[in-house]
Here is the input.
Amino acid sequence: MKTALGRFGTRQRSSQTEAAEQPIVIAIDGTSASGKSTNAKLVARALGYVYVDTGAMYRTLAWYCLQQRVDVHNPPAVASLCRRWKTELQCVEGQLRHVRLLVAGYYPETEIRTAETSAAVPHVAAIPKVRQWMKKTQRQCLQFGHLVMEGRDIGTNVFPETDFKFYLDANLEERTRRRQAEGVAGNLAARDERDSQRAAAPLMIPLGAVILNNSHQTPEQTSRHILDIIRQRLKEREDARRAAQQKPRW
Here is the structure.
């Protein structure tokens, strides 16, 4: 499996054509169990874009804090760890190209999904300086090309300038059913309330976002809807570019 290391210890994209164009960012935000990850992966795979799971990045930070015995309830200590961290991004090639945040060259794939790490994540994610640091880190993913980035503040905080913003939601009953089917317990309403009330980059609908309630849709139906909108907007953008090029110069 081929990988490309990102900036901070990085190998840049080799294509001059790709480097010359402005990468496109598809921002997919939404509530817990609204299908963000599933649909983001389907969209990224269909378009050949790079998938970025920002939640996994916060999990990696939380795990790193636990490994370094940094108190996640101590914001200055967590922020200090971020400043000392020699950040390394890795783009993993394959059917689904995706970005990982490494710790000393290592990706704690299973460790970030443990109950201990999960319990620590909300504390580090609520720290304003951590979110500022994470925003800078996540924007570095642009070096790998066009992105499909999912999270809770992508369209509002990380890439507010993108023209491709989607906000997914579903009714609480359906979202609870999905979590139970995954074997995951938890109070989704409390999670959404906590994230929407935090001071730093709260969960909210991005300005100009397409709002999709997929309570009664399959992931395939939702992703097709998203793809139709993206492709139509890309076509309109290309048509406008060509029209501008053909406009006579006097």
Notes: Strands lie at 3-5, 25-30, 50-53, 88-92, 98-102, 147-151, 164-169, 210-213. Residues 61 and 67 are 10 Å apart (CA to CA). Residues 3-11+23-239 form a domain with the Rossmann fold fold (CATH 3.40.50.300).
